[in-house]
Amino acid sequence: PISGVAESAKGFGNAQVPPDEDGIYRRLSLIDSLDSRVIPSISLKVVSDLKSFKSIGWPQRKNMQIDGKILPLDADGMMMINYYGGTDTFPNYPLAGIISSAFQIANGEEPQISPEVVKDKIVVFGLAAPGLYDMKPSPISKVYPGPEVHATVMENLMRGDFIRPFRAHATFAVALFSSAVASLGLAWIATSWGVAIFMILVLASIVGSSFLLFSNGIWM
């Protein structure tokens, strides 16, 4: 880091968030290692310092413990990001406006942006202009600012708003049951209309159950 920042900063964290194989930003690693050193994500570091976490453990690959509370992870040990909406879910202000407001306050003038908007808040500095290549596709938005990804993760950690991935054995059981029901139904139903209606019902039940689980914080 820049020496002035390095000397003044309370701490550092990893700001990299890799996309999934399809290019969508759904998950991130809260803890990584570099040269045998443990490196927290910038989101975890900020929230940990603010809330004064006493202990962070990783007893299982699929679970992290923070002060004794379980934070669910997926099979790869990644946290699934619980997005709250599309772009501009969080208030954002142009840096030029912040700087000009500081000059206005110094000159005794009414600031363009009131300092109250950042009082007692976590403030994320980042790039959001399209030409600066920090726009990410999220599950609910084709273009989502990179800084808001970190803001979302911080909010998840602050609120405890976690998505629990459906476990592999449960997913296998659902797939096996659905396949068995579909096979038996197709074997018993004689008409093409009956087959079509039956398949629609099977697909609707799978999609419906997925939405129902997601509304309760479980991703299948």
In short:
The protein is an alpha+beta fold. The protein is about 40% helix and about 15% strand.
Could you walk me through the main structural features you see in this protein, from its secondary elements to its overall organization?
By secondary structure, the protein is an alpha+beta fold. The protein is 40% helix and 17% strand. The protein contains 6 helices and 11 strands. It has helices at 3-8, 42-51, 95-106, 146-159, 168-188, 192-215; strands at 27-28, 31-34, 37-40, 56-60, 63-66, 69-72, 79-80, 135-138, 141-145, 164-165, 218-219. A 3-stranded antiparallel β-sheet has the order 4-5-6, with no helix packed on it. The protein has a two-stranded antiparallel sheet with strand order 1-7. Helix 2 (42-51) runs parallel beside helix 4 and helix 5 (168-188) packs antiparallel against helix 6 (192-215).
Helix content: 25-40%
Distance separating the two termini:
40 Å
Strand order of the largest sheet: 4-5-6
Shape: elongated
> Averaging pLDDT over every residue, what do you get?
88
User: What structural class do you assign from the helix and strand content?
Assistant: alpha+beta
